[in-house]
Design a protein that fits this description.
The structure is a homodimer. Chain A is α+β, with helices and mostly antiparallel strands. Helices cover 25% and strands 25% of the residues of chain A. In chain A, strands 1, 2, 3, 4, 5, 6 and 7 form a seven-stranded mixed beta sheet that branches. Chain A has a two-stranded antiparallel ribbon with strand order 8-9. Chain A binds a DNA duplex through helix 5.
DNA sequence: CCAATAGTGTCTGTAAGACAATATGGG
DNA sequence: CCCATATTGTCTTACAGACACTATTGG
């Protein structure tokens, strides 16, 4: 028996059913800037479990696709939004056995449902359409969500989605420092003021417009100057650069 | 029937076996600095599949533990190294259906094995002990590994572990810029030169010792000055700060 | 004594933060 | 006409990069 025959025999006899049953889902933290505030897309669950609670859109992997592919597919299906110039990246995987009651409950006390979470950056002004198993879908300003679940304000969140949203917001805020992703939150063409308002909304700060303009216009490849709008207003498009160094310094958050 | 009774009935009937079979593993990219170079711990596989190839240590989740807990357990079991002051963090999840031949092959063509990968920072000078299902275990300098699998040099890697290692190295290099994690690669107490050599090894650069000392000693909470060694040599310990801002700028890589 | 390394000090260029000045568009 | 906003420009301060100098250790 050659080694490859050995290996083929091993694989033919290999039974994945020896493992406890696991469901693999993707969850999408779709972020946008809306009315000057960072917002996340939530859907109200129409079916069990956690019916009536608010959740990030998502769904289970199809057998032939990777989590990356499933995330793109679910973004289209669950949000009804077109995903053309948007940004999507893997956030982290949540795997606590008790994170979803369909895991340890039900017919399989040793089962679980794990979620591979993604962050999606969506441009301003898109209105979501409720997906298949969602009773309702809307943007929630992240500051209106009680992520520590202490005050009882804001939407009641399903599963461990408060943690997913908190991690996604933190990822978003830090990504704006050293990447050019802020521009994915707005449509082209845009002014420097439009771009600055993205930073102000996401970071919850006020930036000096003059210093901001100097920084982003001198960052190589961040912006392509397009043309002139009304008056001499300068309109820009996204440039080819994906990272920024030195980064754009994030000030301490403004108190209100 | 109340809503919670409804939910309980739903969960009692829920069958996770409706999903395709999935195995969930953790893979560990254990990094260290060794002989002035960044190195990763690899084990030679003793069993099928991919027998004889080099792989990152890892294993499957136990039914009652999260991936974070499994990663800590596997680091102890598979490497034989003590994990006390070390750093471990989730890297990303790899889920392509064909990434492991035990997935689509075998009795379940729609099955798969996904891997939740972690990065571990280990201090200098530790020698690994081969784990249970590993024929051999050793450190490999990451520059000696052909991560694009083009030249045929270096160890032959199993599964998609070249991608895991590449992602881990990139994560490590960027983390050193804005965190104080470089100090987890060395034992206490250490000199500024010890710490600088970590940066030089990981980034593949030469740093000005004077500018480096000024930067790290003035970064609040990075270092606790301990005492004096032989002569007036100053010895330090890790301070409480976990992040550094402004970050320590990373120069372009030195050509050799 | 010499070489290598550690620690401290100084100078310079670049960039960030604060603010002023001008121009444009809308009510 | 007044006010809000956009763009450009100036000044000051902070810090990174380069380099000089001294002290100590080990051969």
């Amino acid at each position: 028996m050659t080694r490859s025959e050995e290996e083929a025999a091993y694989l033919a006899g290999y039974d994945l059913r020896a493992f406890p049953p696991v469901g693999v889902a993707v969850d999408l933290a779709v972020l946008t800037v809306r009315a000057g505030r960072l917002a996340v897309l939530l859907v109200r669950r129409d079916g069990h479990p956690e019916r009536g609670k608010w959740a990030t859109p998502g769904g289970f992997l199809n057998p032939d696709e990777s989590a990356d592919e499933a995330a793109v597919r679910e973004t289209r299906e669950e949000t009804g939004l077109d995903i053309d110039p948007w940004h999507i990246e893997q956030l982290r995987t949540y795997s606590r056995p008790d994170r979803d009651p369909r895991g340890p409950s039900g017919k399989h006390p040793d089962g679980r449902i794990i979620s591979i979470a993604y962050v999606v950056f969506a441009p301003e002004g898109r209105e979501p359409a409720a997906g298949s198993d969602a009773a309702d879908a809307r943007w929630w300003a992240v500051d209106d969500i009680d992520l520590s679940a202490t005050s009882g304000e804001g939407p009641e969140l399903a599963f461990d989605h408060a943690a997913i949203i908190a991690d996604a917001v933190e990822r978003c805020r830090s990504k704006l420092e050293y990447t050019t992703l802020a521009a994915t939150f707005i449509d082209e063409p845009f002014t420097l003021g439009d771009l600055r308002r993205v930073y102000e909304a996401v970071w919850g700060v006020r930036l000096h417009h003059s210093n901001f303009a100097r920084k982003v216009t001198s960052s190589p490849g961040f912006l392509l100057p397009k043309d002139f709008g009304k008056g001499n207003q300068v309109l820009y498009r996204r440039g080819p650069a994906r990272s920024m160094n030195p980064p754009l310094p994030r000030p301490d958050r403004d108190e209100e």
